[in-house]
## 1
Amino acid sequence: MKPDHLSDLTFASLNLHPRLLSGLAKLGYEHCTPIQAACLPKALAGADLAGQAQTGTGKTAAFLLATMQHLLTHAPRSPEGVVAPGAFILAPTRELAVQIYNDARQLGADTGLKMTVCYGGAGYEQQRAEIEGGVDILIGTPGRLIDFFKQKTFSLAYVECMVLDEADRMFDLGFIDDIRYLLHKMPKPADRKSYLFSATLSHRVLELAFEHMKPGVEKIEIEPEQVTAERVKQQMVHVSNHDKLPLLIGLMRTLEATRTMVFVNTKRGCEMVERALIKNGFTAATLSGDVAQTRRLKLLEEFKAGKLPILVATDVAARGLHITGVSHVINFDLPNEAADYVHRIGRTARAGTTGDAISFVCESHAYSLPEIEHYIGMKVPQIEATVESLKPADYLVPERLPRRDDDKGGRHHNRHSSGPRRRY
């Protein structure tokens, strides 16, 4: 029987390449998600797409399948001996780039397509060597890719498929000048396929789409509350700044949580929350913009494997992470942007499951609540229990962090710091 969160459209009905169908069968995928059902028929028919969808809805598989289908059914354009990817996929964060790469490897396991991922903070020489060895699908973040491009490690002159994921986040992180630079080095929009996805199809995102995609680009909009929030049990509790840490400890002692993400607005706040959790007997670690890349990947693997039950994070971890089994999301701080609230709670209730999201509404961030409720189209129910009933009597106060003047709120700006042929 088809799960409720899937559509009636099957992958087998889409005339996909047999090697793609083989990979889908090994993964147990038969029916498309709503975003896949809306995107794939149009993409396979040759249309450029500008899609609105949240992470966890299957959009990554949608653009990967369309991209791989094209590469498998068309001869490469690049001359012999020229290192030139057929597909070029841009993501705003290292975590999202790695996740796209992992999904691509699974979906394309039987295709013979060569792919690699490039991002700042690690593996510089290895990434360059992998590109120089020949690559069909190049995935990465703008800064590192521009670095390699300017060194003439690869050419963009023969790109057949371009994907821009989380376009709105590109604006937020200041990458748009970098994106436009790379797009201008590719073939003209009429000579390539382009797929752009964003949490919101805002005016600035649509302007980017109209500037760098074919006329008549297909707009696909899947509302966030339809695909992400509907399976999340949302709650909030009004609490003073002083009581937030004891309240968090009390909640963690009473919740039947298997895997929890605690979102905090600043790196310094994450460190404070992590210390409080550890002091009170919990196993927790922080994921923020200035955590070394090798450490970040290790933490994510431990969290996915269940070895790390609590991950404390800034919004750097709110997008692009496909982690199954997250039972609870706690907004220790309400986010400043309403869209970030949807991204955060979207870390739970993935792939048709359910989850819980609990938000602390304190003096410092209560102003965000009306905008969030307007954005999601509902009032967030308030927890009936009082704060005092949730606070533990034996709460242990963590040592204070030294004062720092360089906390920028957890945002990390990653500025720009001959191959074999396909034969099928």
Note: The chain has two domains: 11-222, 226-390.
## 2
Amino acid sequence: MARALVVLAVVFGAWPLAGGALAKAPPDSFADLAERLTPAVVNISTTQTVQRSNDEAQIPQFPPGSPFEDLFRDFLERGQGNQAPRKVTSLGSGFVIDPSGVIVTNNHVIDGADEVTVNLSDGSTLPATIVGHDPKADIAVLRVKTSKPLTAVKFGDSETMRVGDWVLAIGNPFGLGGSVSAGIVSARNRDINAGPYDDFIQTDAAINRGNSGGPLFNMNGDVIGVNSAIISPSGGSIGIGFAVPASMVQPVVAQLLKYGETRRGWLGVRIQSVTEEMAEALSLDKAKGALVAGLTDGGPAAKAGIKAGDVVVRFNGHDIADMRALPRVVADTEIGKSVPVDVIRNGQTKTFTVTVGRLEDAEKVASEEDGGTPQGSKTPAKPAGTKSLGLTLSTLTPDLRRQYNVPEGVKGVLVTDVDPKGPAAEKAIRPGDVVVEVAQEQVAKAEDVANKVSKATADKKKSVLLLINRNGELTFTAVRIG
């Protein structure tokens, strides 16, 4: 019976798994799919003019008055003066999404280019104009004028892709024609620190130099990603490639085509991850959500009543599992839309209505903070020790502000010493840091900190949450009570 099951599975394109489940058999060939899709993949050639400059640092150091100094300088100036600005060329890939001549590629393929040329699969060459580009998602949209409709492909649903699904990567790296490689989805939701919205599809399909900007297809022939990066010590594929998912690419492309720029949602918060230690200090049942470490004055979140120390767990109907999820969900939200935001504050869930702003507008506003020079001086307060945290603290005075370069507007308690073997040292707290809050309550004196820590100890807390100001940057840190 088992043998008969195997035979039937092969005949009907499936393999038996444990528990009687059936898995799809690998395709016999990708030839039909490659033949249909390759004409839509193009080669992109860019030219950039690089200005030459005289580099005085290249002149060797000679003894004062040496005749060789003037001789060497004259030699360099004559040689460089005769050299014109040089042109640098680079190659990448792209794919047609509209028969009229709309092409998608990576931003880094065309970044800084003076001229962009598209080489089609039939050997023809067309000049291209840049419709718009987005460095954050590493996506660019080009347009070419063509006398005939081009072969185009469409986006698919990248969210339905599972680890282990077959994918096909097609590029046109050197203008020689399509280059096809096959593999599987190795992982989802990869963060490689390439940008604020990292959510890459990882694949073992070979992606080599010049394949950037090419499409990653599913077995239906739909684009589920744009090949963007690889990890490799040699520059060649070692089976670790990354593609921007179609779910992120599509809205960016739509905005670039409509506005020539992106229009992302903005909440006006600075966030950080919630660790297990922080979860206990924040009265959370588990580490989840995005911890609000700071807010932009007058920003959407501040106007709605959200405060530093709140943990965002739901935004506009989307659960926020971790810090990385919030920026992506906010960015995809319609600007000007009022949405519900659920936060946990002091163990209680509160809901605020936030009107989403525009990220690009916020980025254009220059925010400067003046430190101010304190005038006058007073006798420094005697430092107080908080032994259970491994900290020595002092109430801020004009002299201490000057000594540790703490701006006048910063309020809190100054860290003057840290026990190298204490819990605070484990969290990289250092002298000059200012403790602004303890257990989400503001502190003004060293005694305030000691009292809050004593209360946390009495409540049998294993750690206490500190809000630290370091050079104007606010960060929550859960410190173990030693």
Note: The chain has three domains: 26-52+84-262, 266-364, 384-480.
## 3
Amino acid sequence: MRDLHFTEPTPIQVLAIPPALEGRDVLASAQTGSGKSAAFGLPILSGLMSLPRGKTRALILVPTRELAEQVCEHLTALARHTSIRVEAVYGGVGFGRQIAAFKRGADIIVATPGRLMDHMRSGNARFGDITTLVLDEADRMLDMGFLPSVRRIVEKLPAKRQTLFFSATLPPAISALVRDMLRDPVRVELTAVHEPIELLTQRLYAVPQEHKTQLFIELLKDNNIFTAIAFTRTKHRADRLAAALTKSNIHSEVIHGNRTQAQRTRALDMLKKGKCRVLVATDIVARGIDVAKLGHVVNYDVPLIAEDYVHRIGRTARAKTAGDAITFVASEEEPLIRKIEYLIGRTLAREINPLFPDVPAVAPKPRVVYQSRRRRR
């Protein structure tokens, strides 16, 4: 912890670590970027310190490959001065290293449900010695359709175990899972109020859909945007935006579900090292991904779910640094913006579109054509 300059715990760490150290089950509602990895990682590492190696005793389930790799890296850094081994298990890469990790009994396995099910069906993964189960970003796993797989995995684990459950929201389907999995949990809730991040500037640009790419390139010209993640609604739109940026000599990378794991890892690594100016992505990287000193998040498309806006903008203004969240709003997306403003409890600032300086900053409401109800004779 000294090596990583951990001096002041985050609110989720203050509330979750003590009961976790006592062996209690914990049900925590906390936004991505709140320090959850250490909140469950430190108690796990502390409990493993005095135990012999060679058995997998902790299983952490996460929704995406990127989050699995990040949690694995974070816990490995925390365990640097111990002999505890942490391994990531996810799809898109070969089975060899993962099978070896199961055979030698890596102390902590961080896994996505789909690939873990593959290993369980093949007989590679046996979890008879599991003492701690963590579900991270549980609501995201539900959104991605992993709930049935999670239930099947949990059925194979020892009934006597500690369960640490982290989720930004608790929809009804997850509430049922909570009742089945947790025993007298300590409840930690930090997401009842969506407060704006202190050092985060949020602003909107009203722009027609067909001019969004042109506006983005225009904003990139003044070099105030050094590194950014641009979120699109679909994989196709992500590819198209990345191609347009490259054509304009703006170094960009792209991440979405159709990219290979090697491509996804390289793209994220390029952004983290400052070798890529814009990472174009779908919501696959909207949660959990930590990029130090990311200056900007650009909502190229307004998210369909208001909570996803909060997750997206949480990629910047982290660790008490300043950040800027820019959202492009077409007229048909205005109702989505109103839902976001209701969620966060504030009206977002509107900027004059530099492409159309004479056009009002507020997008006009889409014209509705009413058809006559009179029947034709």
Note: Residues 200-351 form a domain with the Rossmann fold fold (CATH 3.40.50.300).
